Amino acid sequence: MYKRAEITKTKKDFWTTFGQYMKPVPSADGIRVNWQNYKTHVSQVFFRMKAERDFCSIGIEINHNDTELQELVFEQFESFKKILHATLEEEWDWQLHSVDDYGKVTSKIEKRLDGVNVMDKDRWSDIISFLKPRIIALDEFWSNVKPAFEGLS
C-alpha cells in the first residue's frame, strides 16, 4: 500500500518527467506549449491526461455547469468526430453527462490504457508512449477546429 505523500510525489515526478520529455515538441502551430497542462483557451473545455495506479487516460472534458450548454458543446465535437478520429488514427469513447470523481456532471471523449501503474517507474515509458502521440494529435485537431468552439463559451 502506498502512502498519500508517496503517491503525490511520484505523480509529480512523473508529470515533471513527461514535461521534460515533451518540451522540445512544438505545437501544431509551431509555438511552445506546456503539454501536461494544455490550455484550449475555450471556457470549460479541457484536455486531460491522467496517470493513475491502474490506468492512464487522455481525453477532452467539457465541464459547463449548464448541462444544456455542455450538451451543445458535446454535439459540436460530435460534428467533428470523423476529423478527430482520423487525426488520432483511432476511435475514442464518447460519454455525454457522466459523473466525475467529485460528483460533477461532465461530458468526455477519452481513451484509456488499463494495466499500467504510475507508481511503477519501469512503466513510465509505456504511459508516455501512450500519452505523447495522442496529445500531439489532439493539438493538431484543436488547431484546425478551435475557431468553431470559440463562440460557445
Describe the structure.
By secondary structure, the chain is α+β, with helices and mostly antiparallel strands. Helices cover 43% and strands 21% of the residues. β1 and β2 form a beta hairpin. The longest helix has 26 residues. The termini are far apart.
Give keywords.
alpha+beta; four-stranded antiparallel sheet; 153 residues; 4 strands
Output the structural class: alpha+beta
Strand order of the largest sheet: 1-2-4-3
Radius of gyration: 16 Å
Helix content: 40-55%
Mean pLDDT: 94
Q: How many helix segments?
A: 4
Please give the alpha-carbon distance between the first and last residues. Answer: 42 Å
Based on Cα principal axes, name the global outline: globular
Give the SSE string. HEEHHEEH
Profile the largest sheet: 4 strands, antiparallel
Short description:
This protein is an alpha+beta fold and 153 residues long.
